[in-house]
From TrEMBL:
Organism: Circinella minor
Main location: mitochondrion
InterPro entries (alphabetical): Mt_RNA_Methyltransferase, Ribosomal_Rsm22-like, SAM-dependent_MTases_sf
Name of this chain's protein: Uncharacterized protein
Signal peptide per UniProt: none
């Protein structure tokens, strides 16, 4: 009874509230409302500005490296899903775990197991951990399927990021032919198709015949009419036209010795008509492979080659060749997020639909390094007009963030690779100006930063000195 009375009172109070708040319109007001509704929306002047809101300077936008989360093309996902459907899924999971363990075992610079015993006991509550001996796998039929189902998405994302940056930095570079050494299931070829639409000739080279079989099968889903040739060996044909773009992605780390790496890099550069792209895993050993390959080509061909990215200089890498270098704790690498397709989530038994692909890379181009010029002014019809240079030339001297910036209250701290060949620490305070400070707040790991530091820069790692004659 008490509850029923309470409900009756609350209902009456609600009715009383809305009756007091009700608005009654007369006939004139109703007609005015009808006339207002009949006015087209296009004739109503919008108070909002139609101009887009620019949150970064044009230079900072040009230097951005981020491309957002990468999603594999639907035909590629469908081709891999069909391949998995015809295979034993339990074996794919088992082989993928063996493949991941192999990659982890070869990611350390030092392979002396005894040096890690104390650390392992400390991180395992006093129990001695079992450290896997460094080893690589031969890619047979099972390993090739496991690689396609468990590794291809991350390597595809990293390769796509590098090629997207290359197309942004050198907009007039439109390759007609491409060579992918260590193509595996054709990963770099499929990524190149997403970036460059004028490609006419494709060549994929891989020692594993099972990998090439998978690549040929995926071609049927992605581009069945493309002129793609898959072969097991890199053949040299004298006087034959060289590919405009040569890529070797995640291959150097699988080679058993530095001498073989040097030989392969030398052959790849001889095959390069314009640009060579080298990518490896974002581990200390992967970075070391890329840095040594970079230095070898710069030493051998000197004034006939320059670095496009990521380095703003052609000097020895300070993170490997400087006396203060500690490549096992600080190395040059970057990250790209990729959306995991359903088959990858099932292979890894993961509930998360994204992962980060860490990688190290270098982009080398034939010819001397472009000379940069500062912007200047011209007089046109008695009016002073500022003429801005092409960012693609000026960007060769911009420092690059090698780590995520530290965004403090009123200032931003950035560790960058500078064009002097050093690792420097820049501090961009709010007092430096609205545009530099806003660009610094929006800067991210891997971006080129176009503004100098107002404060004195601090050298964290000095210039590198190349004391190695070999890689």
């Amino acid at each position: 009874m008490f509850t029923r009375n309470c409900l009756r009172r609350s209902t009456q109070s609600i009715r009383r509230y809305y009756s007091e708040k009700a608005i009654f319109l007369d006939q004139k007001q109703l007609e005015a409302l009808e006339d207002l509704q009949s006015v087209p929306l296009t004739n109503v002047s919008a108070p909002l500005s139609e101009e887009p809101i620019i949150r970064n300077s044009p230079e900072a936008i040009f230097g951005k490296k981020r491309i957002g989360t990468v999603t594999l093309p639907r035909p590629l996902i469908q081709g891999i899903a069909d391949l998995i459907q015809e295979s034993d899924k339990r074996l794919i999971r088992t082989d993928a775990l063996r493949l991941y363990e192999s990659l982890r075992s070869t990611s350390r610079i030092t392979n002396d197991i005894n040096n890690h015993d104390n650390d392992n006991r400390r991180h395992n509550n006093g129990r001695q951990a079992t450290i896997q001996e460094p080893h690589t796998l031969a890619y047979g039929p099972r390993e090739s399927i496991a690689y396609t189902a468990g590794v291809l998405p991350s390597t595809y994302a990293a390769t796509l990021n590098v090629l997207a940056e290359l197309s942004q930095r050198i907009s007039n570079f439109s390759p007609k032919s491409i060579l992918d050494f260590g193509t595996g299931p054709g990963t770099a070829l499929w990524a190149a198709q997403e970036v460059y639409s004028d490609l006419k000739s494709y060549v994929g080279v891989d020692l594993s015949e099972d990998m090439l079989n998978i690549a040929e099968r995926l071609q049927g889903n992605i581009s069945p009419d493309a002129n793609i040739e898959f072969k097991r060996y890199l053949t040299v044909v004298p006087n034959a036209p060289k590919p405009d773009l040569v890529i070797s992605a995640f291959t150097l780390g699988d080679l058993p010795s530095q001498a073989l790496q040097q030989s392969i890099v030398d052959q790849l550069w001889e095959q390069t008509g314009d640009i060579l792209v080298l990518i490896d895993r974002g581990t200390p050993i992967g970075f070391s492979n890329i840095a040594r390959a970079r230095q070898y080509i710069l030493d051998q061909y000197k004034n006939n080659v320059h670095v496009v990215a990521p380095c703003p200089h052609d000097k020895p890498c300070p993170l490997l060749y400087s006396p203060e270098a500690k490549p096992d704790t600080l190395w040059c690498h970057y990250s790209q997020r990729v959306q995991r397709p359903p088959f990858l989530m099932k292979t890894k038994h993961s509930k998360f639909n994204s992962e980060d692909s860490k990688y190290a890379y270098v982009v080398l181009r034939r010819g001397p390094r472009p000379k940069t010029e500062s912007s200047h002014a011209a007089v046109v019809d008695d009016t002073t007009v500022t003429i801005e240079n092409d960012f693609s030339k000026i960007a060769y001297t911009w420092p690059r963030l090698i780590q995520p910036p530290l965004k403090k209250h009123g200032h931003v701290v950035m560790d960058v690779c500078a064009n002097q060949g050093e690792i420097q620490r820049m501090v961009i305070p709010k007092s430096q100006g609205k545009t530099p400070y806003r660009d610094a707040r929006k800067a991210a790991w891997g971006d080129l930063f176009p503004h100098p530091s107002k404060n004195k820069v601090v050298t964290r790692v000095s210039k590198g000195v190349n004391m190695d004659d070999d890689m």
